[in-house]
Every structure is written in structure tokens, then in C-alpha cells.
Amino acid sequence: MILFNCDYNEGAHPSVLKKLAQTNLEQAPGYGADPYCRAAAKQIAQACHAPQADIHFLCGGTQTNLTVIAACLRPYQCVISAESGHINVHETGAIESTGHRIHTLPAEQGKITAEQIERVCKNHWQDDNPEFAPQPKLVYLSFPTEYGTLYSKAELDAIRRTCDANNLFLFIDGARLGYGLQAPGNDVTLPDIAALADIFYIGGTKLGALLGEAVVITNQKLKKDFRYFMKQKGAILAKGRVLGLQFAALFENNLYFSLARQANQLALKIRQACEAAGLQIAYDSPTNQQFVIFPNTLLTKLEETYVFAHTRYLNKNETLIRICTSWATREEDVQQLVLDIQKYAGK
Amino acid sequence: MILFNCDYNEGAHPSVLKKLAQTNLEQAPGYGADPYCRAAAKQIAQACHAPQADIHFLCGGTQTNLTVIAACLRPYQCVISAESGHINVHETGAIESTGHRIHTLPAEQGKITAEQIERVCKNHWQDDNPEFAPQPKLVYLSFPTEYGTLYSKAELDAIRRTCDANNLFLFIDGARLGYGLQAPGNDVTLPDIAALADIFYIGGTKLGALLGEAVVITNQKLKKDFRYFMKQKGAILAKGRVLGLQFAALFENNLYFSLARQANQLALKIRQACEAAGLQIAYDSPTNQQFVIFPNTLLTKLEETYVFAHTRYLNKNETLIRICTSWATREEDVQQLVLDIQKYAGK
Amino acid sequence: MILFNCDYNEGAHPSVLKKLAQTNLEQAPGYGADPYCRAAAKQIAQACHAPQADIHFLCGGTQTNLTVIAACLRPYQCVISAESGHINVHETGAIESTGHRIHTLPAEQGKITAEQIERVCKNHWQDDNPEFAPQPKLVYLSFPTEYGTLYSKAELDAIRRTCDANNLFLFIDGARLGYGLQAPGNDVTLPDIAALADIFYIGGTKLGALLGEAVVITNQKLKKDFRYFMKQKGAILAKGRVLGLQFAALFENNLYFSLARQANQLALKIRQACEAAGLQIAYDSPTNQQFVIFPNTLLTKLEETYVFAHTRYLNKNETLIRICTSWATREEDVQQLVLDIQKYAGK
Amino acid sequence: MILFNCDYNEGAHPSVLKKLAQTNLEQAPGYGADPYCRAAAKQIAQACHAPQADIHFLCGGTQTNLTVIAACLRPYQCVISAESGHINVHETGAIESTGHRIHTLPAEQGKITAEQIERVCKNHWQDDNPEFAPQPKLVYLSFPTEYGTLYSKAELDAIRRTCDANNLFLFIDGARLGYGLQAPGNDVTLPDIAALADIFYIGGTKLGALLGEAVVITNQKLKKDFRYFMKQKGAILAKGRVLGLQFAALFENNLYFSLARQANQLALKIRQACEAAGLQIAYDSPTNQQFVIFPNTLLTKLEETYVFAHTRYLNKNETLIRICTSWATREEDVQQLVLDIQKYAGK
Q1: Beta-carbon separation of B66 and A27 below 8 A
Q2: Domain parsing of chain B, residue ranges
Q3: CATH number of this structure's domain C2-6+256-345
């Protein structure tokens, strides 16, 4: 079987493994105080044009989300998120487990708007007893979203202005950040993200690393004592070097970005094959995740060879399918899938 | 500088890296559902003589402790631990962060006794209003302890009986389990641990892996829904294979145990050199961690070449030092340290 | 000004105060172990036809909701509630603060259905990775709802069957239970409530007491250690007698129920006046809360004399208003309000 | 039986009940926004010489402690308390339930010292990895302590200086504050308490009220959003007037203080009788709680007529007993107890 169901089916990019092997027996201090973490942090800060940023390396997405959000909020404050946001649909209530409500908003194409956020704040503060509801204090977005879609620079600017006007922090979940930044048509840069968000992260797990997410904190208020939060949540890795080394490899020669670009191109080929076959594209994603409505007959046929993610059961005849490429997707597998879609879709 | 301060200064045993490299581009499902995790779980269950056990792979010690303890307790219940227990001294209140009190007991040589546990329970249940104090429900021990010491089989049997008599779970933190099991004089086996504990873990991070702890659940009551706890705490790694593969490598040909034995032997050499030099050994540890009281003059001299962990500042003239070996410690480094202790201790 | 905005604008029914005064200097044990609590518990158990029920007295609604829900759930489990449920709209995230998600459902007239609950469970358990979302374990309903509406016996029966089929507990928030049970057209009795719910409470604060809610636990599984939960949440009153005495007074000669009936009748008069004046009734409430859409011109006029609760700003010209009666509402005030509605509504 | 076991065996001082009765049918807004709460807050602020203080009324001690402490700390911070502190021995882990460790200190006569607190802070900040332990941020004291003893003005001044030097908040639990302030030999005034603490409370439950604790916040940083904390913890009473009215009654004509003085005098009589009978006084308490070591033979005899609290089982022959007086203790009961001690102690 060929797996297109997600972007974490393989190990790590060979450069990553190579760096781990080369440095393997060197001794280095634990808990992220090693030279590899320091070097990777420097590379990332440079790439972000944010020399003053604090950079921390964590293991995975849920861990990062719950640690960051706990660090941004007081107990009675809530985080605003798209209903389809990862923290709301795929993390077993990890945010609530730290005591906070997720204030969800209906999302168009996985995205929320400055206007929606504004309304939440207005409703809260106009109430006679605002203290009877959780106080909005943080906006959570993903770039790209759960559906592979992207916010435009103008949309993010508007959200930032709303955050400023309402004293909210902005946290951008970048589990797939590279795929978003390298997408055709995207007008947002990594320095833009760093300038717009108070805190965000650059995902390694889904883009070339064995594991690892790099949290970037640009807002001075959120820097203090962040490592206490990490340690309390079990998010300081003893061998922090394992994370630092991987990000060092990924940020050498723009590897992180070229891997993303290549994955996006392969995803686009699949999308074009689906469109040519008359299949409906559910979300307008220019990134490595494509959401396509498949007739079940076609799906059954293809699933003899390929694995996809079943996102939603639409009706008796159709299913919403996610097809992912990644840094590790092989061109020949995509070529075969394209041919098979052409071959079976007509029937 | 040569680092003897802890047992996680290097990467992973070469067999571990090799396995990661060999399988790197194979596709496998995420979240621990891959064949490598399954194989490693089988190897571990066999080594434990516990074919019915559930095995889960997590990333690090604090994460494992907080996940396991949360899974064992209802909100008003507490965990009993030595005052010197890792959860009490080195995890930023991670247990309290999940809502639970640690009921600490003074510990002799890092160990607590069945009698102490019994007394806690008796005091609780004899009170007129037991519900005004957290209810004891779980015993947390480390094998070896924070000071490298070991419980005897008889001591663990007594604790188990106390747990049974008082309806308590027993959780054994095995972050350094291999070092304990392979220690000279130890009379406890891995199957003993599996039979005595309701839940325990086998530490990889400190014994040959890049990261990873294998939780073994033998009590049926604790198996249900454990993965919900893991996910909620951010403790399900997307690329679970990274953990499974490492444990598979470590449990091939007893690698885990032979690495531990070798580290213990090197630690013993250091201990003997310290004793021969008239230094006081603070804890009776037969494992890879040695706790020695150093005159500061000697310490200063040695610290030109070596790094140790400063465990406690005893007085103006003396410091309690931890010296660690590990699977990665080089014999020649130990030899040199031994010579330097001989050389400088006399002065 | 005459207050119709809520049902807790006055102190307590005179019988309640009298009982407090009569027993004031008698000595009694604290924490609910007094004879008054015991007597009240017996009266309540009898009224419920539930002699085996455990009865506990708490201070207020939010406190009761958070204590009960924490006692019903493990950390990864969630509670299902109407979006308009009190725990979701008026308690500052108290439930999330104890670590649990509220799984909200859109509510028709403040009510949710067995079918909706069934679908939540089916969606959860059919997912390939159910452990990636909070596990449904508890249904929270109010009787009456936030909008004064009532579930029919058939609706509650259906919900109970769904709970049984899906291994869910059912918790009924009865902050205004008396008003519901005494409403015209209601076909649910107190013994029905006790038989249907696993745990529920009878509200005193809004029906004759200074403060106090009586929790009734009929499910054996939820009885154990409930007082630990209460104490940990600060919900055991030192002078428990204060609560026991009030419920003893309210359950003498059915006072609780006759007060409710009278308040409902006064509310109905107001409703009829509104209907007669052509105002739109927003929810079909036969209880002491009436939700009416007021033209702002009329509202402004009436608010020279009366205080109402502004439930929602509908548009430039209209506001959704809550008008409450209570055990303490004076007939002459209602009469005057009715006349004023007649007088000003035409304009 | 005559109860001397605690100070909450009766209802409320008649002035309190009278005020509740007189205002019973007046309408007033809920949640503490009523004129009675406002008036009581003003009286209290005046008595504290703290016109800028924020005053909030809560129901009971545990509720107040958990709400205040949650409001003072970030998730990774801990509260320093005497081992014998109420939050550590009598609240079912309520503080840990909100996520925080209690850093306990051994207490002499129930009291901790500035030096002990200083050492905790020094140890924390001198560690190489302070973020691996909870960060000290708050000191919790009781005035009087659990053993009825008092801090001197000089002791409190020293603690305040230590708090300032280490950036700690100081929270004083005044569940029995009146008894402490009115004790013979006490040199601390209510304005002193208000000037020394960042936040403290004045206990009503144990000194004349049915229930109620008045929180006084003098530190500007702790004022913001305190009501969110209250609501989230279920600590805003719907009929807030019930609390405001009681404090208004207690702070009229210094009733609160004269009741305390009288209770202290009665306690002193009991203490003198015990001393005269050769019994050992365990703690040097000038307040309404007396801790006396009783031979079990004497105890058994007295317990035919009186109820005491058994604080600790010392040995086969002796028990540590708490004897409480209160605002409601009758002089004739004390007189009889004194006579019975004289009568039976000799035997």
C-alpha cells in the first residue's frame, strides 16, 4: 500500500539523520542548553528577522499547543479558535484540561475573521456582568489551517489590529508552516508571521524531522518563565540536542522550505488530476493537503492500492477524503496515483 | 571537559541509530500503531513475563509520571512518595498541576517503607472526617531511587502487601530501571517488577535511546482509556515508530541490560577510587549514579577537567556530588578520573 | 423601582427565617452532620420516592454544577449540554476550570434531544481514533431550561434510554426545579426526576431560601466519596445547619411547591398581558421566567418603573427581555405591570 | 451535651438575624451589587484604614483560600505555608486541585519565620535550573494560627520585608481574625494587617455570622478580575446581600470585636483551670482555642458532659484536646466546665 493519508508516515529527511549520527557521541548538556539548540535557535531567529525572539524546542503539536496556551492565559481567560481548529477537534480536550475554554467560531474554509473576533470581544465587554463568562485573551490560528487553506497577509493584518484593539495575544500554530509559506499564491513570509504573532511555532514533525516543534516568542511579556511551563507540562526533553540538531539540519540551505515546495507541487498534481476527473475539491488548498469529494465506488477502487484519510462521511455515495503529500512523497507514487485517478474516475 | 554529571549527555547507542536509518523511508501508520511499536511491545512483554500487559511508548520521564499518575487517581486522591522522589523535587509541580497532592514521606537512602505507607493510610481512615484530607490511593517509587539505591525484593513485597491491604496502586518509576536490575547485589528481576507494580516504566532516555519511556500496565483497571490520557497530555508522538524502533533495538540480544551492566561497573570503579581516597560515600548505590562528599579543594581541582552534578552544598568546605556513568561512558575517561582522584585526593 | 429581572431579589420565605431564628442558639455539629440536615434529607428522599438516595446540601448553582460534574467524569471525559445551558453561558468556564470540555449542542427552545446525544456518541465511537477527542460520559440538562421551557416525560424517557445505551450519566440541574414541576401542562413529577437522573439538584436559592441547593444522588456509583469532592471545591459549609434548616422549612407542608405554583400563576398573568398587547413570546415557558420581545419604545417607558433582564439585543428596535416572578413577587406589583403594559403597548 | 469542640456550633449573633429579618422583603440586586454589601465594604475599609481596598464577600474558608490563592499565582508558582496550615491539613488538597503545590515548612507553635521563607527563596533561585521546581510566589499565614497562637508585629514586619525582597505576595487567613486581634498581649491591629498583607480575609463564619468571609485586597495587582476568579470557583453568592448584611451587623458598634474579646476571656478561664489542675498547655494561645493535653481518664469523665475536638492521639494515656469558645459560648457552661475540671482532675 502507498500511504497518502498524512504527512508523518516516514522517518526524517536524510540530512537530519546524518546530523544526529555525526554528533552522536559528542557530549553536550541536557534540557536544551546544548550548542546545537543554540545554533538552531540562531538560524531560526535570523530566518524570522527576529533577533530578539526566544526560541524553544518541544516534541509535538498537542504538547506545544497546550503549553503555549497555558502560558498565555490566566485561569479565567479563554482562547478563540475556529471550530475546525486542531485544538478543538484533535487533542482530547488538552486545552480544557489546563482549565481553559476554547471559544469556537464557525469557520469558512477553516479560517476565522477579524470581524468574528471583534464581535466576541464586544459581546463579552458589553455584558453587564462580563465576569460571568470566560474573558477572551488569545486568538489561535493555524497557518495553513486544518484544511490546508491560507490566510492572506491582509487577513492576518486585520486580525492583528483586532488583537491590538482588544488586548488579545495572537498565537499561530505552524505545525505545517513551511507548506504554507511555500504555497503558490501565498503572500505571507516567515518574518511576517514573526511580526504578526506574539508567539508561534515552526513544525518539524510534519516537515522533515523525526519529531520537534520550534516555538518562537516575540512578545516580551510571554518570554518570562516559559521554561517553567515547559517543564511542568513534561515538554523539556532531557536530550534537547535531538531537537536542536534536527532544526539545525532543516534550516541549513533552506532545506525546510525546499522540501515544502516540492511537497506542494506534488499535491497540486494530484489536485489537478482530481479536477480533470471532475471531482469536487472541498477546500481551496494550495498546500500539501488536498480535500476531495470522492464517489465511494472510485474510492473503493483506489483504496486497493492507496491509503487516504477519511475526513467526513458525506452521504451514502460520497466521502470527503484528505490526500497528503510530504517532504518524503515519491514522485513516482504521485504519478501512479494520477494515472489511476484518470483510469478509474471515468467509470 | 569530560561530562560525568548525568546519564544523558550523548545521543543514542549506535544500534538504535542504525535501526532508525534502516527503516527511515518505510511508510508506517502514526501514533504508535506501526509494526515497530508492536514488535517492541511484544519483546518487552516477553521480557516482563507479562503477556497480557499493555505497553505504551512516551517521550520523557516527567511526561510519563504526570500521565500515569493522572490515570491512577480521582481528583481528590493523592500519591505517596519519598520526599526525595523525582516527582517531588524535579518536575516543577507537574503532579500538582494535574490537581493532585504528593503526600511526601521522609526517606532513608531515598527509600520509603511499607510501615510508613501503612501509617499514612491508617491516619487517613481513622480520622473522623477523612474527606477533609486527600485520600491516599497510589504509591510512587523509583527503582533505582534518586540516590541510586535499590529496594530489596523483600522490601518491595512488603510494600505490595501494604498496597493490597489498603487498596492502593503501586507505580514504579523505572527511568533508570536497567541500571537497577543489573546492579551487583540486586535481587529483583524485571518479571518481579511487572508482578509487583500495577504500572511501571522502563526508561530509554537514560539508557541508550535518544528519547523514550515504555510504560507497562499490568493491572487491568488501569488499561482502559490510557491512550486518552496520553493524548490529552500531549504524550502520543505522531511518529510513534521513533520510540518503537528504539526499544526494539534496545531489547534485541539484551542490549539494554548489557549496556546497564557495563555502566554500573564503571561507576563502581569510580566509587572504589573515592573510597580508597578516603572520601565519604553518601548513599549506598550499586548503580550508575554515585553520590560522594568532596572537599571543595579537591572538587575545584577535578572540575578543571570533569563536570559533575552538585547535589547539595553541605558546608563551606564540602559538597555532595553526583557522578554518573552511562551506556556511553568511555572506559578511558573513567580510568583517567580514577587516576586524577588518586592524584589530587591526597593533597 | 420594582424588580422583575430575576428570582433572587429578596431574602427568604418567612418560614425559613423563622426556623433559623428558633434554632439559632441550639448547638449542633458542623459540616452537615447536624439533625436539621438529616431531617431535611429524609423529607427530600421521601418526596423523591427515593429512600436510598444520598442528599447533600451545597450553597449555590455554579458550585453545585462544578462539583457534581467533576464527580461524574474522569479527566478526559466531557459533558454534553445545550449551547444555552447555564454551565456554558453563565459560569465563567467553571467546568473547563475543572479540566472538562462542555460538548455543546444547538438547542431548540433551550432543549436538546435524545437523537442529538445519540449522534454525539456515535460520532465519537465510530472515529478511528476516538481517543483524540474528549469521551462523552455525562448529559447535563436543566429542568426548567434557561428559557423556562420544560422537557416532557416522553422526552426525558428517550434521553434516559440514550444514556443507558451509551453508558452516560444524566445530571439534571434543578436550580428552578419547583417552578418546573408545578407548571401547568408539566407531566413530570419529582419521583420521575429522581428515577430518570443519576444525580440532580433541587434549587433553594431561587425558591424561598437565602441560599442552598440540595443534591440528590440516586446512582450508587456516584455516591462514593462525594463529600471529598465537596470539600475540595469549598462546598461543605461549616454551619451546614443553615442549609438543612432552610430545606426542612421548604419541604414542610409542601411550601416549596405552593410557592412555585403561585409564582408561575403570576408569570402567566404577565405573559397573557404581553400576548394581549401583541408582543411576541420568544419561548414557550409555562414557568416563572417569561421571555418577551419588546419594542424599545415600550421598554424604555416601562423601565421607568420596572427592572427587567436584557437577554439579547435583537436589532435597533427590539430587545429580548426576561421577566421573572418568584415566591416573593407581590400580586399588586404584577397587577400594576399588567396595567402598564396595556397602557403603553398600544402607543 | 455541651459542645466546646469548635466555634461554629450555633447559628448567628441575634443582631445578624435581626438585620436579615428586617430587610428580608426589600428587593436588591444580586451577586454582591446590593447596597448592604456596599455599606459593609465601606465599614470594613474604614476599620482597616484602607479606603482604596477592594472588599469581596465569600461563603467559607476553603472556598476563600482556594479562590485567593488561585488569583495570586501563575500555574507554575507555589504557596509557602506552615505544615500545620489549614490549607495543608484540612482542605482535601483544594489548593493542589487548582494546580499549585503547597511548599510546607515545619512550624513552631503553628508559626513560620521570615528566615524560613528567605531560605526557600534562596534555595530556589540559586539552583542551576530553578525552572525544575515550583517558583515561590506567595506566603500563606493564619492569624491566629491553627493552634490559636499569634504572630507579633515584629514577626509580621520581618515576613513582609522578606516578601518584598523576594517578590512574594503575603496572604493572611483571618478565619478567626477577630479572636486574634482582641487577644491579650496581641500587638497587631486590623490596620496593621491591612498594611502588611497584599490580601487577607476577615472571618465571619466563626465569629457571629451564619456564614461569610470578607476578602480585603490592598495590593492593586490583585484587584483586577478578582470577580472572574470568584465566579469560576462558584464563590459569588446569588443573594450576596446575605453576606453583606451580616458583615454590616458585625461591624456596627464594634460587635465583631466585642464578641471576640468575650470569647477569649472565657477561653482564658478554661485555660487557667487546666493549668491549675496541672494539665499541660500544648500551645501558647491567648485566643479562643485552647490546646491541652488530657489524661484519657479525665477526658473520658468530662466527655460524659462535654464535647471536645481530639487533635492528636499522643500515647496510650494522653490525648491532645482542642477546647473552643466562641461568640455564643455561655458563661455558665464555662463555669461548669471549670468546676468539673477542678473536680475530676485531682482524681
Answers
A1: no
A2: 2-6+256-345, 14-254
A3: 3.90.1150.10
